[in-house]
Amino acid sequence: MVRLFRTNYLRNTAEIGGVWDFVVDGGGEYKLPVPGCWEMHPDLGTYRGSGRFTKSIYVERDCNLRLVFKGVSHTARVAFDGAAVAQHYGAYTPFDAVITGVCAGWHTICVDVDNSFGEHSALHMPNDYYTYGGIVRPVVCEYLGDAYIERIEFVPKKTPGGWQADLRVFVRNISGGDMDLAICGEIAGNRLDFAGQNIAGNGVFSGIFDIQNIDEWDISNPNIYLLNVQLLQNGTAIDDLIERVGFREVLVDGEKILLNGREIFIKGFNRHEDHPIFGMSLNLQAMATDIALIKDMNANCVRTSHYPNDELFLDLCDEHGILVWEENHARGLSEEKMRNPNFDRQCEECIDEMVKNHFNHPSIIIWGVLNECASNTEYGRDCYARQIAQIKALDKSRPVTYATHFKYRDISLDLADIISWNIYFGWYENIPAMENVTKLLEYSDANGGGAKPVIISEFGGGAIPGYRDRRRVKWSEERQCDILEETLAAYLHHPRITGAIIWQFCDCLVTEEEWYDRRPRTKNNKGVVDQFRQPKLAYDVVKQHFGIGSTMELGRFFDEYIRKG
Predict the structure, then answer these.
(1) What pTM does this model have?
(2) Are 66 and 89 in a shared domain?
(3) Is 2 within the bounds of a domain?
(4) Cα 341 to Cα 359: distance, rounded to the nearest angstrom
């Protein structure tokens, strides 16, 4: 399954999943599932390198084809009938290949995949999570005419009289000549008509429309609507694209984050796409189980640490009213690593693809960049400035942040709309949480972070599943409970904090190359549930604290109670 809804009625599409042939470089032939991670095969559990996936497809009629790869980890080179058609770096964002003049009959797709580490890969490297190998997200084949709708950008705008839809529809003409084209559409019974254009190559249709009879998207009522757009030639629809959208507005107002004009407190989890059975290629049931557990613990937010997530998971967040902080792929890079000659380009491509492909998800309320990178250096600051500016040029409707762990040393806080601190009191530092977060906020306010919302973006402690010890020592489930008890009590009720995101939802696999000596079981064990999603003792601690809510939420509850008499 690619999405939770049908994305086209006119355009003929088919998922190219199932079993593909796979040959490891240097020998070894396998039948592997797509989507899937090759590490799930018993012979390939620790394989890092390259190999070739091959699949034959039958094309029913002469046409143009578009192959859409939702995720290949981490470098892909795609050939169609032996001719190179696409190349892409990055496991977590989609890419496509358009092949014109394809004849009816059988054709062969070959995808050379590489998940090795080295200078060629500035972002995928030995890290505190695992870089899997394979065609890890779905592949879709689309039959195209001479022009098609590439994507839609939908920005909801709240007005005194209701809501507007600010729309941009991106169209691509692959005919080689000029075409007279028009766009029409519909959302919630509201008709959308755009003026026609003569297009050679790429074109953009723009319009702002008043929308009637809709309900807002928010945490408790995640109302979503189908936005159906058609491409017309001479009054006849030749292509279409359907998106799912929600009407909501995200604003930063001083120290507050507002959703539809109401202050919100973020309570959530950092979550890796990782599972011992599926690797990073979680199926719908596994994703839905994660959502159910997150909601059961009274959380309202997921941070996609540390890369863009599968669209299917974002669809579930849209449906369930889960707020999302989505961030580009970069974690823990020193200035030396950020000077990799491929770093700027690979980050820029990841950001561009993340924002453009996930633009319309109402659940995404924050964009993030460069987790725990060199924001304490002048060179790093320049990198942060470029990437934040890039996101703001692509999307002006959402705030941008980055998570830092440079206590009293960060020099880039003024660049962000929201200040986000990764701090592990009780785990890496045995210091009282309330006392030290207050000191940290004093530094933040004096160094570019004043009068901005503050999120504690990572905190927690490790616990090896099933390790119980009455002494409450580190790595015991009891000690994890103690750390979360203290930090949640401090962060949920501090007047300057507007969000608390626990590290992390589930235990995840890490790379052995660099982390074997700090991560028992070659896993980051700070999950509140284990890798199989079995709750640790801390599960009920989190559920209780998140259920009580923050001081701000309790104040709003009592204000509403008094107002209603």
Answers:
(1) 0.96
(2) yes
(3) no
(4) 29
Same domain, 116 and 236: no
Mean pLDDT in residue range 234-240 = 96
Question: In terms of domains, do 269 and 129 share one?
Answer: no
Domain containing 136 equals 12-144
Domain presence at residue 3 = no
Asked if residues 73 and 115 have their Cβ atoms less than 8 Å apart, the reply is yes
Same domain, 322 and 360: yes
**Rounded to whole angstroms, how far apart are CA atoms 211 and 208?**
10
Annotate 435-449 with b (16+ C-beta within 10 A) or e (fewer). Answer: eebeebbeebbebeb
Burial environment of residue 329 by CB neighbours within 10 A (0 to 12, 13 to 18, 19 or more): buried
Residue 175 sits in a domain of what CATH number? 2.60.40.10
* Residue at token pair 């008509």: 193
The two beta strands, 364-368 and 323-327, are parallel
Instruction: Count structural domains, the chain.
Output: 3
Domain check: are 227 and 319 in the same one? no
The model's confidence at residue 514, banded by pLDDT at 50, 70 and 90, is confident
As a whole number, the mean pLDDT across the chain is 95
- Identity of the residue numbered 1: M
**What tens digit of pLDDT does each residue of 242-300 get?**
999 999 999 999 999 999 999 999 999 999 999 999 999 999 999 999 999 999 999 99
> How far is 552 from 532, CA to CA, in rounded Å?
34
Asked if residue 508 and residue 451 are part of one domain, the reply reads: yes
- φ, ψ of residue 123 in degrees (nearest 5): -110, -40
Q: In this structure, what are the phi and psi dihedrals at residue 486, rounded to the nearest 5 degrees?
A: -70, -45
Provide φ and ψ at 150, rounded to 5°. Answer: -75, -50
Nearest to 328 by CA among 236, 394, 426, 259: 394
